[in-house]
Design goal:
The complex is a heterodimer of chains A (76) and B (124). With 76 residues, chain A is α+β, with helices and mostly antiparallel strands. Helices cover 37% and strands 26% of the residues of chain A. In chain A, β1 (18-23) and β2 (30-36) form a beta hairpin. In chain B, β1, α2 (31-42) and β2 (46-51) form a beta-alpha-beta unit. In chain B, α1 (4-14) packs across α3 and α2 (31-42) packs parallel to α4 (84-92). The longest helix of chain B is centred in the first third of the chain and has 12 residues, at 31-42. Chain B is globular, with a radius of gyration of 14 Å. The two termini of chain B are 17 Å apart. Classes of the chains: A alpha+beta (76), B alpha/beta (124). The interface between A and B is medium-sized, with 13 and 14 residues.
Chain lengths: 76, 124
């Protein structure tokens, strides 16, 4: 399932960080992801979102993710 | 006619606040495009919207330029601010208005328009 794929990719990119993946509509292609990571400290919001987009590049490119909402936070 | 790449780059480089959306500013076709437009409007921006739906090549060229995978995409003075989530977050914290006022000068006006691109024919 797409949510599991997303979680595995995020877990891999942000090891040990707090991650949540929510299927917003229940349809399996609209997701809200939240990542709280020390790697975001000192980064701007757009840099933080770029890291999340990069981790999810494959499912974004192949249409597995139709809509992605991102919430990021540093730990500082 | 200039290429889509050139037209998109021109919009980003010359429009004070450009937002690439699904649909038009008057009739957004996607909730996230609507969210970005609303945040920009509430921040008092002069908004130039470009609809990516008329041709899939618009989105392809845009993403190649911005290295950002999703729609909408908001640019202020040529700089990518982000998508709907970042635009909303920056609006909520007051940073969006500050960024726009800083970049454009405090006397800038508020407006909304949708700018059509000229779609080149697909080569045979």
């Amino acid at each position: 399932m797409a949510a599991d794929v997303i979680r595995v990719l995020l877990d891999d990119a942000f090891r040990g960080d707090e991650i949540s993946v929510e299927d917003r509509t229940g349809g399996g292609d609209h997701f809200q992801v939240t990542v709280v990571s020390a790697s975001f400290n000192e980064l701007t919001l757009i840099q933080q979102h770029r890291l999340v987009n990069a981790a999810l590049a494959a499912p974004l490119a192949d249409g597995t993710i139709h809509e992605l909402r991102i919430r990021t936070k540093g730990t500082a | 006619m200039s290429t889509l790449h050139e037209q998109i780059k021109h919009v980003i480089d010359t429009e004070p606040v450009a937002v690439f959306i699904k649909g038009t500013a008057e009739a957004p076709a996607c909730g996230n495009s609507m969210r970005a437009l609303q945040a920009l409007w509430q921040a008092g921006a002069p908004i130039t919207a470009v609809d990516v739906l008329p041709d899939p090549r618009i989105r392809e060229e845009l993403t190649a330029l911005s290295d950002w995978p999703t729609i909408p995409q908001v640019f202020v003075k040529g700089e990518l601010i982000g998508g709907a989530d970042i635009t909303e977050e920056l609006f909520a914290s007051g940073e969006l208005k500050a960024k726009i006022d800083d970049a454009l000068g405090a006397g800038h006006g508020q407006s909304v328009r949708t700018m059509p691109l000229e779609i080149p024919a697909i080569p045979a």
